[in-house]
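Quick one: structure tokens for this chain, please?
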Amino acid sequence: MGISALTPPPQTEDVHEMLLEFPDNRLLIDLCGEFDRNLAQIEHKLGVHIPRRGNRLAIVGDPEARGQAAMVLQQLYARLETGQPVEAGDIDGALRLGETAGPEAGAGDQLEMFQGGRIEIHTRKKVVEPRTEAQKAYVRALQENELCFGIGPAGTGKTYIAVAVAVNMFIGGHVDRIILSRPAVEAGERLGFLPGDMKEKVDPYMQPLYDALHDFLPGRQLAKLIEEKRIEIAPLAFMRGRTLANAFVVLDEAQNATTMQMKMFLTRLGEGSRMVITGDRSQVDLPRGVSSGLADAERLLKPIDNISFSYFTARDVVRHPLVARIIEAYDADDAKT
């Protein structure tokens, strides 16, 4: 891996200091970030000081914080060695992964967790790599099961990863179509009359699905596939009466499907198809008194073999680092009530 110092060298003068040596100075520059902002993010979170000394980083602080900082730096350096960039969200994710591992995990254990079982999802425009253990398990579940549920807060990659896997299976010839759907439910707002034809009326609800597809397929190819109906993006209500065979089907925002809608959708599963249901139980926008079909499906289908349930928490958030903190604050408040 090129990291030649995992513990303080014998001649370290300060007992509160750990030195890590990185042989590739170009990668070390990327690790530190512009104006050392990546190091500053780690310092602020862990309460350590990380001065740079040539091709070494010194970690100054209490032993537990030093060990955790070393784990994070090694994870990020390993990511750079594979050609992946290091951004603020990657640093925050590595820090939260270190919290999950706990202080008893050694540097070698944490590095192995980051590298072991590496998974890549290849699409036409980019390679998607799940960043957390929950995301890796989710990808495995999507590959191994015909019906999968991804449940957790916003920003954890539930839908993004599902669409990436759908594109991967489509371009690999494993399915003939991709069908993406959402309930057309207003998120606590009254949007009123929307002008235009049916597509123009429902497209605002479907925009997150278009955004994901644009990340994975060139624009012209995506437009052609949509025109040919090989990729469909439609409201949940449009699924009634259909049998979805040889397709990769994703239902997003499933917490806003009613019980009857969920049953209708699940029974569309046809021969040679895979179906993924994603949702966030904390963001139900259904009218008061209407039960969420996601909650009912979770309760009824868990005992059935070959149906997987993947769960995410704030530790799996891969958006802006503040998103994870916001989710944790709301979860803590909910726990009090």
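Residues 121-336 form a domain with the Rossmann fold fold (CATH 3.40.50.300).
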